[in-house]
TrEMBL record:
Record's cofactor remark: Binds 2 [4Fe-4S] clusters. Binds 1 [4Fe-4S] cluster coordinated with 3 cysteines and an exchangeable S-adenosyl-L-methionine and 1 [4Fe-4S] cluster coordinated with 3 cysteines and the GTP-derived substrate.
Organism, as annotated: Desulforamulus aeronauticus DSM 10349
Binding site for S-adenosyl-L-methionine: 26, 67, 118, 189
Stated name of the protein: GTP 3',8-cyclase
Quaternary structure note: Monomer and homodimer.
List of residues binding [4Fe-4S] cluster 2: 254, 257, 271
Cofactor requirement: [4Fe-4S] cluster
Binding sites annotated in the UniProt record for GTP: 13, 63, 94, 155, 259-261
GO biological process, one term: Mo-molybdopterin cofactor biosynthetic process
InterPro entries attached to this UniProt entry: Aldolase_TIM, Elp3/MiaA/NifB-like_rSAM, MoaA, MoaA-like, MoaA_NifB_PqqE_Fe-S-bd_CS, MoaA_twitch, MoCo_biosynth_MoaA/MoaC, rSAM
Keywords, ordered alphabetically: 4Fe-4S, GTP-binding, Iron, Iron-sulfur, Lyase, Metal-binding, Molybdenum cofactor biosynthesis, Nucleotide-binding, S-adenosyl-L-methionine
Length: 325
């Protein structure tokens, strides 16, 4: 479906839970956040009904997110439901990777096409400091399993934070020389827990690229890597993988945004940073038909704004894991 600004909206990001087994410093406080009661979270069957309705108006790509999606009970069933829809041609996953290795083969059998890992440090001690609880080696085992299963392209999402992981940019880049990994540096966004200190810890994509070029020389511009994301990609000479930057703040990409977000409690957000949400849970539980759900999703698309306004500050009381990454 085409929105009011001539953008083709074909991508739905689905948060299946607001629960997470990490406590990342830029996402939530050490004690965590109050989780949504289970009865308020959409069931897997309700999520699949939303996907079916969305596919009727042009959604062809689905990404499963959280919180940490792999903590959701019976999550494999959802992949099977979605993969049974012939109108959906791409099913992807964003995960912190801790549980991935042991689930990877069944995820692929259930319909998973590709995976993104959220990984902000290659140093086990720094990784633990950032996540507060995470074990780097569990994540690395999951990454190797994804490569073994050919779940390409295998991507890393690295939130760039000054004084936290900016000393590792070169280490991430060097990984792409030997492994077919696609490292994407994401500018820190003033959302939730990181809102008060985002400005002082912000690293612009231009600075990241300058640092990498000073260390490695001129990077080759790369064609877009498979997926629906906004990253601009580059390659070190002869490298097997790529380096990407996502300029969420310094040079927004709203004019090409093709996505909607479904929160775990059934609210459809046309824009991550906008406050407007469309309630799908109530009609789902009131017996709405597939056609009626499709009409509601189309309404949300018609209300998708021309761009975000992150520079005005974060007013939502929720953190990123409660909205959907």
């Amino acid at each position: 479906m085409i929105d009011n600004f001539k953008r083709q909206i074909d991508y739905l990001r689905i948060s299946v839970t607001d629960r997470c087994n990490f406590r990342c410093v830029y996402c939530m406080p050490p004690e965590g956040v109050k989780f949504t009661p289970h009865w308020e979270i959409l069931s897997l069957e309700e999520i699949s009904r939303v996907v079916d309705a969305a596919s009727d108006i042009g959604i062809t790509k689905v990404r499963i997110t959280g919180g940490e999606p792999l903590v959701r009970k019976n999550i494999l069933d959802l992949f099977q439901y979605i993969s049974a829809n012939p109108l959906i041609d791409d099913i992807s996953l964003t995960t912190n990777g801790v549980l991935f290795a042991d689930m990877a083969e069944n995820l692929k059998k259930s319909g998973l096409n590709r995976v993104n890992f959220s990984l902000d440090s290659l140093n086990p001690d720094n990784f633990r400091d950032i996540t507060r609880v995470g074990n780097f080696h569990d994540v690395w085992r999951g990454i190797n399993k994804a490569l073994e299963l050919n779940l390409h392209p295998v991507k890393f999402n690295v939130v760039a934070v000054r004084g936290v992981n900016d000393q590792e940019f070169g280490d991430f880049a060097r990984l792409t020389k030997e492994l077919p990994l696609h490292i994407r540096f994401i500018e820190l966004m003033p959302i939730g827990e990181c809102n008060p200190w985002a400005e002082g810890n912000f690293v612009a994509a231009a600075e990241i690229m300058q640092r990498l070029q000073e260390e490695f020389g001129t990077l080759e511009t790369e064609m877009k890597v498979t997926g629906s994301g906004p990253a601009k990609y580059y390659r070190l000479p002869g490298a097997k993988g790529t380096i990407g930057v996502i300029t969420a703040m310094s040079n927004h990409f709203c004019n090409s945004c093709n996505r909607l977000r479904l929160t775990a409690n059934g609210q459809l957000r046309p824009c991550l940073y906008g406050n407007q949400e469309f309630d799908l849970k109530t009609p789902l539980r009131s017996g709405a038909s597939r056609e009626e759900l499709a009409d509601l999703i189309a309404k949300a698309i018609r209300h998708k704004p021309s761009q975000h306004h992150m520079e005005e500050g974060w007013t939502d009381r929720r953190v990123m894991s409660q909205i959907g990454g």
